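hey so i finaly got around to running the thing on Ferredoxin from Candidatus Fusicatenibacter merdavium. pasting the sequence first so u can double check i didnt mess up the copy paste, my clipboard has been acting weird all day
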Amino acid sequence: MKKLVVTDKTACKACLQCEVACSTAFYKVFDPDKSCIRIVEKNGAVKTNVCIQCGKCARVCPEGAISQNAKGTYIINKKLCVGCGKCVEACPMGVMVKAPESPVASKCIACGICAKACPMGILEIQEK
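ok and heres what it spat out for the 3d tokens, dont ask me to read them lol
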């Protein structure tokens, strides 16, 4: 299974470069709400939320628009997606995106853009 992994959960400095890279690559604008990786701060601790490829989004999609590709990564068929947002609601990591101006949802496809942008080097695409 190909997926994005946080290799050191304590090293994130919340610089947001991963969020910038993701939202810019897919929406051409920096907007944390449009990033498929989320940096959250809670009680002074920083947590990097990434798609764990659990498949909950696929199980709730009424259109069958989300499926696993040959590498095990869940992807959205934009021709089938109706933008209902059920996948966004189901995502346990809070990293599914449904931008208001987009007719379809988006999610991490393990492309590695965020990993390349991370100055701490704690993001990695792994195949298991």
